Amino acid sequence: MKSFRGMTALVTGASSGLGSEFARQLSLEVSQLLITSRRADRLQALSKEIQAKSPQIKVCWFSADLSCQKGREILCDWLTAERLEIDILINNAGCGDYGLFEESQFDRIQSLLELNVISLTYLTRFVLPQMIRKKRGIIINIGSIVGRKPLPTCAAYSGSKSYVHAFSEALRLEIEGSGVTLTVIAPGPLHTEFFYRASRNDSEEKPFVPPFMWVPLEKVVHESLAAAKAGKAFYVPGFYTRIASLLHYLTPSFFLKPIYRMILPIHSRNDSSKKNSLRCSLPLQ
Ligand SMILES: NC(=O)c1ccc[n+]([C@@H]2O[C@H](COP(=O)([O-])OP(=O)(O)OC[C@H]3O[C@@H](n4cnc5c(N)ncnc54)[C@H](OP(=O)(O)O)[C@@H]3O)[C@@H](O)[C@H]2O)c1
After folding, report:
1. pLDDT, tens digit, for every residue of 91-119?
2. Element of type H or E holding 175
């Protein structure tokens, strides 16, 4: 079991939700905490809050837009200029886009891929050589249960998180024995700003989620850090979410289609395809 004592941690997407909670819980153990996202006021308030509770550690914040290459470079240039070497990287910043893909705005999809895929890959590439040289490091990549089994109405998001899972699994095998570990966390639904931001009309619109699958942020982060310390490759926080995600993963998509049609806003086209399918007596495909 690894310890975080004396380490420097970088948390992306720390201005809200899961990222803020990672920062709070890490601050109880690390000696230096670096937090980043775009909203400087939130980062400043969080670093003040953490510094007040943990005066023994050093907290620094840096505002950067990780969905563009310039933002990613500015962050890494700052780390280099300040000689800040990262021992723990929490690749948490991420966003969604909820709705039919054919109705999506491509610039939104592009930013999503830039943030969820490119930024995570870029930061991992940036810190990994330092970690391997020092023979110590922990990377936590935040995936999702829909990265394991894709969900209609979240096509690009599911695809981006599938990348996180595949990339992380391959990289973990590459770095085995180097002293650096990589853990993918696949959370289920969380009460954060995520759904509001993923919605295309500034609402809390989201897929139906059974109440037992919502896991409190504190628990998600606590279990995630324990999984990373134990060197686990993959972890789904929350017992019921773990079971539900496993069942979802093992069930062939064919059997899930009727359920998706009941709980997801994909009815319009399916209403007409339903008529056709009844007429043809063929299974929906
Ligand atoms: N909520 C869920 O149900 C759920 C489920 C599974 C996985 N996840 C994953 O968990 C992670 C955290 O999400 P969350 O639920 O905590 O959502 P959240 O509250 O919306 O937090 C997202 C964080 O990412 C940052 N961010 C967004 N766009 C950015 C950009 N262009 N550049 C830099 N930072 C950016 C946001 O800060 P700024 O806006 O200040 O930049 C914010 O701090 C994401 O990877 C998400 O995919 C969430």
Report:
1. 999 999 999 999 999 999 999 999 999 99
2. helix 155-175
Confidence of residue 267 (pLDDT cuts 50, 70, 90): low
Q: What is the dihedral of CA 191, 196, 199, 202, to 10 degrees?
A: 160
Res. 282: pLDDT tops 60: no
Ligand 1 site residues (CB inside 6 A) read 13-19, 37-39, 42, 65-67, 92-95, 115, 142, 144, 187, 189-190, 192-194, 197
**Per residue in 223-266, pLDDT tens?**
999 999 999 999 999 999 999 999 999 999 989 998 888 888 88
Residue nearest to atom 3 of ligand 1 (CA): 189
Q: Which CATH number fits domain 8-250: 3.40.50.720, 3.90.550.50, 3.90.226.10, 3.40.1190.20?
A: 3.40.50.720
Q: Nearest C-alpha to atom 41 of ligand 1 is from which residue? A: 38
260 catalytic residue (yes or no)? no
Q: Is the dihedral of CA 72, 143, 147, 123 positive or negative?
A: positive
CA of 15 to the centre of ligand 1 (A): 9
Q: Where are the domains of the chain?
A: 8-250, 255-285
In ligand 1, the atom with minimum distance to the C-alpha of 67 is 31
Longest C-alpha distance within the chain, in Å? 71
